[in-house]
Structures are given as C-alpha cells and as structure tokens.
Amino acid sequence: HVQLVESGGGSAQAGGSLRLSCAASGYLYSSACMGWLRQAPGKEREGVASIDSDGITTYADSVKGRFTLSYNYGSHAMFLQMNSLKPEDTAKYYCAAAPLYPGIQPLRDDEYNYWGQGTQVTVS
Hints:
The chain is an all-beta fold. Helix content is 0%, strand content 50%. Strands 2, 4, 5, 6, 9, 10 and 11 form a 7-stranded mixed beta sheet that branches. A hairpin with a 6-residue loop joins strand 4 (32-39) and strand 5 (46-52).
C-alpha cells in the first residue's frame, strides 16, 4: 500500500518562498517517476515538476528557474522549493507517483497512479 503525504503548504507574499515536502511510504515501483502537480480553482490539474529513478528532472515552463525539486532516496522524501512565488502559483499541490516507462510524459496527470491528499499554497 503506497501512501504519499504532503506538507509545507501555506500562504506567502508574492516574491516569497515556500517549501513543500512529500513523504512516501509503502512499496513504490522499482522504477518510478515522482511528481508535483497542482490544481487551481476552475482550472485543470497541471504538472509542475518531476523526477524519475534515473534522476532526470522535468519542470513546467511556468516554474523553471523559480522552483527546484529534490529527492532523498534514503528516506523516500521529495521536496519542492518554491521561490519568487507569484499569485498564479496559488493552487492545491499534489505529490504523485507513477511507474517509469520509456516515453512517459511526467507532467501529465494521467500518468500517475498514486496521489497524496494535497496541500494548499496561496500567494497574494
């Protein structure tokens, strides 16, 4: 049974920073892709950043240069450092896991099988 638990959301001023954490437990895929996705009110869920078992990271254009994803393989914890926050970053952020396969599109939400409950980020 895979469990993903996010933490670290909250409120920030534009230009500020927040750091999200995702704790993973249970058996994950031997080759996995872990991602952060977000959904703003009235909008579709979108991929923000991801990392796969080969250490390859992918970022959405909207967050490149501002957000940094990191993963601790020892503790199976994933982090998203969000700097230079903008009001348009306001959304509920989800941690998710997917099996890694050739051709995976890591910013597509339909690639992911396991999801956390989400954590709210509000930027004003």
